[in-house]
Design goal:
By secondary structure, the chain is mostly helical. The protein has 24 helices and no strands.
């Protein structure tokens, strides 16, 4: 047998099948054990979980974030643009804000409402019922545009390049498998799968990294890193893809990622995603009824610190291997070939799958693929679970009170099916737009500003009125969707549009997407402040929801110790070191 085959051979398939059967058995065993220990659980237990250990929370956050857009998109952008897109991944420091700042506020409202809140619950209480309902709508729209469609598309690409499965079979098959898993597994299944796949995914990806460097360096990892960096410096007409900031206007990447505004734009998206997005926050709020607040907050905070460490890894797991792939592609006599796409350009989206096929030994390919399949399922299952949570808790329950828990769970599943179908319908539009990773961040840049403004001002300012939050959220979303329509019509501002209308509105549809995002945030904040001058102040109860009493502050202080500080500083230090090296 050729142990260095560049194809997925029989032994790999055998390892993959046996391994996946083992994963199914482990998840099933964990679910059965959990059901025996807690018969009669509520739908909140199914949707949120019941307080997993902090290290499981950290792995669950990491697994919920890592999806096929990383396996395909991040490696692809590494091959095409190097570390230019690393800002969106080097955000371990941003996750810390969730644990240190936001969880205490969320837990305070948990206590006031007597249940585990969703993000729309928070806005309904702090602002108006309409504000919370609109957040649910916006989140479900985001799932259609950025979660289901992107994950299904990139899952299909990954299976096609690595396993040779036709694209649509892979995409639809991934959704079908995940749907079955979500129905029977619930949050416990997601958490268990996350704890299984995370170590496999990390070890497997680092094998690809080091073996790829070894191949590039002709038997030396150090020489391989030097060769990768030399190739990166020579790309893009000598401007290079080895630095994160592009300040020279002659740089081919400057028009898309101008100067230091890229850091601001990435941070706005990260703040929304890590601190206010339902499918992330859902991972940290699970708890037993009546559990001590200090214990809940400490566990959540430590989970986010653990996730902060994990979040440093994707650049090395996926983006750097993409840079290795393009270096191997450009190396004479390497035999490494990513092929071309439908428009005759180098198919960088194939970078990671081709790396797996070319650098991993036979058998190991199968083991690593187990982790990748689990990552795809866990990531998509997290979105499915969040869809069910949002629709059931924020729309259906208020309209149909007193129904059985089984009924509510069924309705949540039906809502998820609808979101999936809409996501599949959007895929052709998505495929006609920009490259995958740029498309994903572009959509998020239109959704994030209103979320960041509404949550930040709602928590840290007692003067922002309920109507101001409503205007800010709905107005910001409307402007973002209008920009999306112009992006579709004008090819993201690249098309030549004739006529007085297009000339007079060029400031809107031609402005760089990151600059537009920053100005949109400033506009929404200004709008909310102005509206607050002319609308009724928040009620005493609403203000109390964001006010810490002396006892509550003491409880928060008792929930952390020196090791929490050390872990936090290490996460921040590692992120800073990455920025320093690739400045």
């Amino acid at each position: 047998m050729n142990w260095n085959s560049n194809e997925f051979v029989g032994l790999d398939w055998a390892v993959l099948v046996i391994g996946l059967l083992g994963v199914v058995w482990a998840v099933w065993r964990a679910i059965v054990k959990d059901k025996k220990a807690s018969k009669g659980e509520s739908s909140s237990d199914y949707l949120f979980g019941k307080g997993e250990p902090w290290y499981v929370i950290g792995m669950a956050i990491f697994a919920a974030n890592i999806g096929s857009e990383h396996l395909v998109g991040l490696a692809g952008t590494g091959a095409k643009d190097g570390v230019g897109m690393a800002h969106w991944e080097m955000q371990g420091w941003m996750i810390l804000f969730l644990g240190w700042l936001f969880v205490p506020f969320y837990q305070l409202l948990n206590n006031k409402l007597g249940k585990i809140i969703t993000m729309p619950d928070f806005l309904k209480f702090r602002y108006t019922h309409r504000t919370g309902s609109w957040l649910s709508i916006i989140t479900l729209v985001a799932y259609v545009l950025t979660k289901v469609s992107v994950t299904a598309f990139t899952g299909g690409i990954f299976f096609e390049f690595l396993l040779g499965i036709p694209f649509w079979y892979g995409a639809i098959g991934l959704i079908a498998i995940t749907a079955v898993f979500t129905v029977f597994g619930g949050m416990k299944g997601v958490m268990t799968l996350s704890s299984i796949q995370t170590p496999i995914l990390i070890i497997g990806s680092f094998l690809v990294l080091f073996l790829g460097l070894n191949l590039l360096g002709d038997g030396s990892i150090v020489a391989g890193w030097s060769a990768m960096m030399d190739n990166a410096r020579a790309m893009h007409d000598g401007y290079g893809i080895n630095h994160m900031f592009h300040t020279d206007q002659g740089d081919p990447m400057y028009p898309e990622y101008p100067g230091y505004v890229v850091f601001l734009g990435a941070s706005i998206i990260g703040f929304w995603y890590w601190c206010t997005d339902q499918h992330i926050v859902q991972r940290v709020l699970g708890q037993q009824p009546g559990e001590d607040n200090a214990k809940v907050i400490a566990r959540a905070r430590r989970g986010t610190i653990a996730a902060g460490f994990f979040k440093i890894l994707p650049c090395f797991m996926f983006l750097i291997p993409g840079m290795i792939a393009i270096a191997l592609q450009n190396k004479a006599g390497s035999g490494f070939d990513m092929g071309v796409n439908a428009v005759g350009q180098l198919n960088t989206d194939a970078a990671f799958a081709v790396m797996v096929k070319n650098v991993l030994p036979t058998g190991v390919k199968g083991i690593v693929t187990i982790g990748f399949v689990c990552a795809l399922v866990a990531s998509l299952a997290a979105f499915f679970n969040s869809c069910a949570t949002l629709f059931t808790e924020d729309f259906y329950k208020p309209l149909k009170k007193g129904m059985s828990e089984a009924h509510y769970v069924l309705v949540g599943r039906i809502a998820t099916v609808v979101v999936v179908l809409l996501g599949l319908a959007w895929m052709p539009v998505m495929m006609s737009m920009d490259t995958l990773y740029t498309y994903l961040q572009g959509i998020q840049s239109l959704l994030a500003p209103s979320m960041v403004a509404v949550f930040t001002l709602g928590i840290f300012s007692k003067r922002i009125t309920p109507k101001a939050g409503e205007w800010g959220l709905i107005g910001g979303f409307a402007i973002g969707m209008l920009r999306l329509v112009t992006n579709v019509v004008t090819d993201s501002g690249k098309a030549v549009m004739d006529g007085a209308f297009w000339d007079s509105t060029a400031w809107f549809w031609q402005t760089n997407w990151l600059i537009f995002e920053c100005w949109l945030l400033v506009f929404i904040i200004g709008l909310m402040i102005v509206v607050s001058f002319f609308t009724p102040a928040p009620s005493k109860e609403q203000v109390e929801a964001i006010t810490f009493t002396t006892d509550y502050r003491k409880m928060i202080r008792s929930s952390w110790n020196v090791w929490d500080i050390v872990g936090t500083l290490l996460v921040v230090g590692l992120c800073a070191a990455f920025y320093w090296y690739f400045w």
